[in-house]
Amino acid sequence: MDYSLAWLSYRRLPFYEEKEYFQKLYVQGEDGITSSAVYEICRGAEEILGIRTEIVRLPVSVGNEKSEVKEGIYLFLDSNGPSGGGYRIFEEKGVIWITAAEPEGLLYGSFELIRQVQRERTLKGLELLRIPENPLRMLNHWDNLDGSIERGYSGKSFFFRDNEVLVGKRTEDYARLAASVGINGVVINNVNVTERATKLITCEYAISLKRMGEVFSKYGIRLYLSLNFAAPIELGGLATADPEAMEVREWWQAQMKETFRNIPSLGGFLVKADSEGRPGPFTYDRTQAQGANMLAEAVKPYGGIIIWRCFVYNCTQDWRDQKTDRARSAYDYFMPLDGDFHENVILQIKNGPMDFQVREPVSPLFGALSKTNQILEVQIAQEYTGQQKHVCYLIPQFKEILGFHTRCREEGDTVADIISGRCFSRRNCGMAAVANTGSDSNWTGHDLAAANWYGFGRLAFEPSLSAEDIAREWCECTFGTNAQVVHAVCKILMMSWPAYEKYTSPLGIGWMVNPNNHYGPSVDGYEYDRWGTYHRADHLGIGVERGKAGTGFAQTYLEPNASIYEEAETCPEELLLFFHYIPYTYMLKSGKTLIQHIYDSHFEGVEDVEKIIGLWEGLRELVPGEIFDRVKLRMEHQLESSLEWRDQINSYFYRKSFIADEKGRTIY
């Protein structure tokens, strides 16, 4: 069996009892997306069940008239069916119906039907109604035109090589995988747009990008590009990129007319401005809204949107300054502009105020912004959570983020309510993830890291799914339904994020990684640097004071969250060191001192990794040998890395505090 298509690597099921449904497929409509739905059902039936499905074309006028139907699967558009990419699947008297108001719904319903078969679920009496909660469900790739990937841990780019755009079989395989979990938007290039990548909006790359857009469109995916705010200077030869300058506005309008003419399927652009050296409106004393709106006006005639990242902060902070706080930056820059952005501008907000750490609070912009379109940005690339060398299943973290109560209203105030558009009646909103794919044969380097790609898509489509449900789904689609395999793999996944947190940075402090590559322990790696990512440990305690006596960041939250975070006694302990400087002798609710918690959690984290390895070892004869060996090798590396983390962190704080481990374990 070929496992090169991740969870779409179909296994033959010789004893599946409900093959008869797949003998005939009755289809209404011949558009590109419906054709993809037909292809997916037929491919699934042939590869899983060994059946060649007969396709019967129906006239457009045929409806859901049950007296006339014959056994098989009916795939058709119903104007009264679920819209917005939703679908209904139901079985009745030997017939399976997949209905939707739009072709995208038929495609998602087809993948769901195949997923049911993969998982060996009965189709008799099946009744499913699914409507995606988030309008936009996007992947952001940080791929560079030379073929490298910034923060990529799974090989090279399959979108670019040697300054050329690649469109081939892997493009279609990728589109199939993304669409199968409900992804409907993809940004293919790095948000840090430099050099040749600036030219992606020109005619130089138009033919290849048009072809890529067509491949994506067949699977209900819109193509997006990251653009360079300074393009009027670098491409147009202007002396300025000031968003209020008439020549700049006219240049963008002319360029967008050309770009959308060349790439009709283009959805819009993702923009990183005024952050980490990228150009932006601040250069010209303009606001972020002025910069975004100028671009929004240029793309509006073509139905385009501008996704404007809120990752804007001063990256030249003085480590001696204990009042300036990187965590405040996005709030301070964007909160005063609520309501100033055009309707086709969406603010893309990182899940936390810092940068994809293993634990940090939810960004206070969620709930504070009530008049602005918003997308939640998370990262499945594991930049700070093991870089796909460590297993770290992040869907439980995303569930916590989505479930956070912002207190912007009495009910319906969670992050999930906001980004779905329900809370403030917004239309342009949703979820985006920094992608974790590359040219590796298994797509994600670590075979178990594919659960994050799969899980993000499923969660963005259906946030009510539990992390356990998603893990089980992914496991059964990938490895089959053997109870021992499913139990062990799901347990490994659910243990992995807490384990990683235990052996790395404690109680929300974050960072403590080697600068630049962000991998492995370096407690003071960023402590005296310009990036504003400090832990402030001394011989008495550790933590960043962000209450009123410190940076005041706690007060950016709505009440009662602000008051809860303000006091150490009420602050959730998993975030204690993010919000407060705490003495090592401080007693936690567990009855342990802070320093003892640091020691214990790091020893426990290593023990958890040993348990994870034991669980995987028990599957030696039950999963494909190639996959078993690849994962085992990475887990052995994870154990070595966790030991290094444990010993460096514990030794550091022992030497800072001179307080011994109560259990007398070896600390260096």
From TrEMBL:
MF-aspect GO terms: alpha-glucuronidase activity; xylan alpha-1,2-glucuronosidase activity
Record domain Glycosyl hydrolase family 67 catalytic: where: 117-443
All residue ranges annotated as the Glycosyl hydrolase family 67 C-terminal domain in the record: 444-665
Xref: InterPro entries: A-glucoronidase_C_sf (IPR037054), GH (IPR017853), Glyco_hydro_67_aGlcAse (IPR011395), Glyco_hydro_67_C (IPR011099), Glyco_hydro_67_cat (IPR011100), Hex-like_dom2 (IPR029018)
Coiled coil: none
Gene3D superfamilies: Alpha-glucuronidase, C-terminal domain, Chitobiase/beta-hexosaminidase domain 2-like, Glycosidases
GO biological process: xylan catabolic process
Residues the record marks as active site: E276, D355, E383
Entry keyword Cell division: no
Pfam family, one: Glyco_hydro_67M
Database matches in SUPFAM superfamilies: (Trans)glycosidases, beta-N-acetylhexosaminidase-like domain
GO CC aspect terms: extracellular region
UniProt keywords, alphabetically: Hydrolase
Record-given protein name: Xylan alpha-(1->2)-glucuronosidase
Organism of derivation: Anaerocolumna chitinilytica
